[in-house]
Amino acid sequence: MNKYDIIKKPIITEKSTMAISDRKYTFEVAKSATKIDVKRAVEEIFGVKVESVTTINVKGKEKTMGVHSGFRPDWKKAIVKITEDSKTIEFFDSMM
Questions:
Q1: I need a labelling partner for 14 at 20 to 30 A (CA). Which of 5, 24, 78, 96 fits?
Q2: Pairing of the two strands 50-58 and 7-10
Q3: Cα–Cα distances in Å, from 90 out to 45, 47, 70?
Q4: Domains and CATH numbers, the chain
Q5: Can you state the percent helix, strand and coil of the chain, rounding each to 5?
Q6: Is 47 helix (H, G, I), strand (E, B) or coil?
Q7: CA 93 to chain centre
Q8: pTM
Q9: First to last CA, the chain
């Protein structure tokens, strides 16, 4: 699996932007990705040192449109904490 296939997109919410001050960054990742895969991908893409990775499987919400109902797809979220001596991720710096 390619490192760019593992990290799908950053998650920008109020809670995730507050965690940036604690050097924690949130990403949507591939469902089959492990913590080790996520760690390697973030280190290679952004050039930082990763201290820890926490992964969360998020269930899809039920959605209704008229009389039809269905579910959004399930997805996986990763919260990556970088080390103190590592530089920050520039993409998230513009958010603050």
A1: 5
A2: unpaired
A3: 12, 11, 38
A4: 3-84 (3.30.70.330)
A5: 30, 35, 35
A6: coil
A7: 16
A8: 0.89
A9: 32
